[in-house]
Design a protein that fits this description.
heterodimer; A: 114 residues; mainly beta; seven-stranded mixed sheet; globular; B: 111 residues
Chain lengths: 114, 111
């Protein structure tokens, strides 16, 4: 069964350092999402891509976060510089079409900023 | 602004009990509603998706209902097992296709 892949699974970094996460969606899925989940809370959308274009990045802290999906397939989320409050689980999801179908989630990257 | 609330935040039951998890949302103009399961430190697994025109969906021991007019959904788990222990998340798709999550209910099923 096809799955969303994410790496790394765990990342420990010091504040002010740069960190990057990678996501490979299910093959053929046009829509890709990045979510942030703080411990004890539900995930919150950071950015949504339709193919290679950003559809929604209204909740992305653009002073330190960036995301790209250059060829409309895999995607990278970057944080520079990392802050203590960025410690969270970062989840990637994909869906086949325009974004109103079921979203399929990857295993997530757990980030700890020291 | 759509808000999703799940009650209770945590629940502990003995094995074999039937249980209900509750989810409420403030804006009834939703597209779909979805229930997810999340094991500690892991990603989300989709359990059930209810389209806005549907009243309920069933999968095995799970049954999810949707009442759009009252802004409520319930997830019913029959004959609970220790393997059901996890956090259960409710999420609604708004008309724009954005997924809004509740904070989850942490379920513990004791042997």
């Amino acid at each position: 069964e096809a799955e969303v892949a994410q790496s790394p699974r765990y990342k420990i970094t010091e504040k002010s350092q740069a960190v990057a996460f990678w996501c490979d969606p299910i093959s053929g899925h046009a829509t890709l999402y990045w979510y942030r989940q703080i411990l004890g809370q539900g995930p919150e959308l950071l950015v949504q891509f339709q193919d290679e274009s950003v559809v929604d990045d209204s909740q992305l802290p653009k002073d330190r976060f960036s995301a790209e999906r250059l060829k409309g397939v895999d995607s990278t989320l970057k944080i520079q510089p990392a802050e203590l409050g960025d410690s969270a689980m970062y989840l990637c999801a994909s869906s086949p079409g325009q974004g109103k179908e079921t979203q399929y989630f990857g295993p997530g990257t757990r980030l700890l900023v020291l | 602004k759509q808000e999703v609330t799940q009650i209770p935040a945590a629940l502990s039951v003995p094995e074999g009990e039937n249980l209900v998890l509750n989810c409420s949302f403030t804006d009834s103009a939703i597209y779909n509603l979805q229930w997810f399961r999340q094991d500690p430190g892991k990603g989300l697994t989709s359990l059930l998706l209810i389209q806005s025109s549907q009243r309920e969906q069933t999968s095995g021991r799970l049954n999810a209902s949707l009442d759009k007019s009252s802004g409520r959904s319930t997830l019913y788990i029959a004959a609970s097992q220790p393997g059901d222990s996890a956090t259960y998340l409710c999420a609604v798709y708004n008309q724009g296709g954005k997924l809004i999550f509740g904070q989850g209910t942490e379920l513990s099923v004791k042997p």
